[in-house]
């Protein structure tokens, strides 16, 4: 773990993860957009409303998860040591992307009869799904770090006790 004055370099898997997320958003958004050309306009309007609501809730949960991670600075330090300062951009960027997707769906419901509206719905859906997934994975990482922090001292104490018992 880096000291306060040391520069932290990000984990090398971060650029790969960003590329994979981009591929999922582009592929998922395009695939869903093409799939959404099939339903009637009134059904698409309901879809916009649902994605707007789910995206808003997901954005709120993402922000809550981010807040929980940042309140406990020990786990935030572990994440920063693993991923660099880019973790903040990932967490808050995901929240912003989900919120913008939800608002875009809410507004685009008015224009549901327009052909381009299906693309908004497809990409908004992909952004919300990827945003929730990334946030869940980062929160899971914090729990793994917590588990590791609580079990390592126990293992060391058990090993030391076994050594003295011999």
Helix/strand class: mainly alpha
Morphology call: elongated
What is the strand tally?
0
Mean pLDDT: 77
Roughly how much helix do the residues carry, as a percent range? over 70%
Number of helices: 5
Could you spell the SSE succession in H and E letters?
A: HHHHH
Number of domains: 1
Rg calculated over all Cα atoms? 21 Å
Oligomer: single chain
Percent in strands: under 5%
The description of the largest β-sheet is: none
Could you list the spans in which at least 5 consecutive residues all have pLDDT below 50?
A: none
Q: What separation lies between the terminal Cα atoms?
A: 35 Å
In brief:
This protein has 166 residues and is mainly alpha-helical. It contains 5 helices and no strands. The chain has one domain (13-165).
Structural write-up:
The protein has one domain. The model has no long low-confidence stretch (mean pLDDT 77). It has 5 helices and no strands. The chain is mostly helical. Helix 1 runs antiparallel to helix 5, helix 2 runs parallel beside helix 5 and helix 4 runs antiparallel to helix 5.
List keywords for this structure.
elongated; mainly alpha; 5 helices; 166 residues
């Amino acid at each position: 773990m880096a000291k306060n004055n040391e520069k932290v370099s990000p984990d090398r898997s971060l650029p790969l993860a960003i590329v994979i997320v981009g591929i999922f958003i582009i592929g998922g958004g395009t695939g869903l957009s093409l799939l959404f050309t099939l339903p009637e306009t009134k059904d698409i309007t309901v879809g916009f409303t649902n994605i707007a609501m789910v995206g808003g809730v997901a954005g709120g949960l993402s922000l809550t998860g981010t807040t929980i991670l940042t309140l406990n600075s020990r786990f935030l330090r572990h994440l920063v040591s693993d991923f660099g300062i880019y973790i903040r951009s990932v967490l808050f960027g995901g929240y912003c992307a989900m919120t913008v997707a939800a608002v875009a769906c809410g507004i685009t419901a008015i224009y549901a009869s327009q052909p381009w509206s299906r693309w908004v719905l497809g990409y908004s859906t992909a952004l919300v799904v990827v945003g929730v997934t990334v946030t869940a994975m980062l929160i899971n990482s914090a729990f793994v770090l917590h588990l590791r922090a609580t079990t390592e001292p126990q293992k060391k104490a058990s090993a030391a006790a076994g050594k003295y018992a011999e």
